[in-house]
């Protein structure tokens, strides 16, 4: 893919790492997960970002942009048990963002991550949203939870929200932002898990 970008485009200005396997490939609790499922998650995230950042940096001029789509809560919490492999993989991506940001700073290449909240695309589009492959009753519960106030903006993210954040980090004016994880979640990541929503809204 990178060789094709070099031969067709002459180089690369922006690289966005945004891929994941299908849910059954990694979705298993810590005591039950297989090594194959573990490697599926780690390879699709940490290994893919490592190789993608190395290859894209080789093709980038000064001022290039590398962006990882991550999910920081997945690596910080442990309550979503079947997310153990992907959460661990995303934690590794968050760390890699910082390492590559330092490694490429002298060339003016910025490396940042975007941590979306829950993302729902259009109902007929599954690609890009892990939530769309969950059972409908689970989707409904997630949507209600956020619309009722866990997300202060009272909605879930859209793919456009995430795309706009990528565009923001790729602007020339963002050239001094590097090694950061930008939460694009309508304020959900700043809510307090200790207190009921009714108290927080009071």
Structural notes for this entry:
Strands 1-2-3-4 form a 4-stranded parallel sheet, with helices on both faces. It is an alpha/beta fold and 202 residues long. It contains 7 helices and 4 strands; from the N terminus they run αβαβααβααβα. It is 45% helix and 10% strand. α2 (35-59) runs parallel beside α4. The chain has helices spanning 2-9, 35-59, 72-76, 84-104, 136-150, 159-170, 197-201, and strands spanning 14-17, 65-69, 110-116, 181-184. It has a single domain, classed as Rossmann fold, CATH 3.40.50. The longest helix is centred in the N-terminal third of the chain and has 25 residues, at 35-59.
Entry summary:
With 202 residues, the protein is α/β, with parallel strands linked by helices. The chain contains seven helices and four strands. The protein has one domain: Rossmann fold (3-Layer(aba) Sandwich), CATH 3.40.50.720.
Helix content: 40-55%
Task: Average the pLDDT over all residues and give the rounded result.
Answer: 92
SS strand fraction: 5-15%
Number of helices: 7
Number of individual domains: 1
Annotated CATH homologous superfamily: NAD(P)-binding Rossmann-like Domain
CATH topology: Rossmann fold
Strand count, sense and barrel status of the largest sheet are: 4 strands, parallel
Low-confidence stretches: none
In total, the number of strands is: 4
Structural class given helices, strands, pairing?
A: alpha/beta
The radius of gyration over CA amounts to 18 Å
Separation, N- and C-terminal Cα atoms = 52 Å
Strand order of the largest sheet: 1-2-3-4
């Amino acid at each position: 893919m990178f060789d094709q970008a070099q031969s067709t485009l002459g180089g690369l200005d922006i690289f966005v790492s945004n891929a994941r396997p299908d849910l059954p490939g990694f979705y298993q609790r810590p005591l039950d997960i297989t090594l194959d499922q573990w490697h599926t998650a780690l390879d699709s995230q940490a290994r893919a970002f490592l190789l993608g950042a190395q290859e894209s940096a080789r093709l980038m001029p000064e001022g290039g942009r590398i962006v990882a789509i991550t999910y920081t809560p997945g690596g910080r919490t442990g309550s979503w048990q079947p997310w153990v492999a992907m959460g661990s993989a995303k934690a590794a991506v968050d760390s890699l963002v910082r390492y590559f940001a330092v490694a490429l700073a002298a060339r003016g290449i910025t490396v940042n991550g975007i941590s979306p909240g829950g993302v729902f695309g259009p109902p007929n589009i599954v690609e890009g949203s892990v939530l769309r492959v969950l059972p409908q009753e689970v989707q409904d519960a997630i949507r209600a939870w956020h619309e009722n106030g866990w997300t202060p903006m009272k909605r879930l993210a859209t793919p456009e929200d995430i795309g706009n954040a990528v565009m923001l980090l790729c602007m020339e004016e963002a050239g001094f932002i590097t090694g950061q994880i930008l939460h694009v979640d309508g304020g959900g990541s700043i809510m307090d898990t200790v207190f009921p929503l009714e108290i927080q809204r009071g």
